[in-house]
Amino acid sequence: MNTQIEISNVKEDKKYKGAYTSIFRVLNSESIFTERYETEESIGFVNGTYYLELEGDLDANEYEAISKIKNVTIK
C-alpha cells in the first residue's frame, strides 16, 4: 500500500522545496542503501497543493516526524 500526502500552500516555483524536501529528509534519514521515491501515479502540483504519493507505508517514527511538518496532511 502506498502513502498519500498533501502539502498545502505551495507556490509552483517552490514545489520541490520546503515541506517536500523535509518529507524526503525524514524518509531517507535512516536509509543507507535505499531511498524512498514519489510514485509514477503521484498527481503532483495542482492549484497550490502538492499531492504526493510515496512507495510503501510509513513506519511510526516517519509518520510522527512528517505529521509535524507545517502544511502537511497524511491521508
How would you describe what is shown here?
- This protein is α+β, with helices and mostly antiparallel strands and 75 residues long.
- The protein has a four-stranded antiparallel beta sheet, covered by helices on one side.
- The longest helix is centred in the first third of the chain and has 10 residues.
- The chain is built from two helices and four strands, in the order E-H-E-E-H-E.
- It has a single domain, classed as 2-Layer Sandwich (Alpha-Beta Plaits), CATH 3.30.70.
- A hairpin with a 2-residue loop joins strand 2 and strand 3.
Stretches where pLDDT falls below 50 for ≥5 residues? Answer: none
Tally of strands: 4
Helical fraction: 10-25%
User: Helix and strand succession?
Assistant: EHEEHE
Briefly summarize what is shown.
By secondary structure, the protein is α+β, with helices and mostly antiparallel strands. The protein has helices at 19-28, 60-67; strands at 3-7, 44-46, 49-54, 72-74. It contains two helices and four strands, in the order βαββαβ.
What's the SSE blueprint?
Blueprint: E1 3-7, H1 19-28, E2 44-46, E3 49-54, H2 60-67, E4 72-74
Antiparallel strand pairs: 1-3, 1-4, 2-3
Features:
75 residues, alpha+beta, Alpha-Beta Plaits, 4-stranded antiparallel sheet, 2 helices, 4 strands, 23% strand
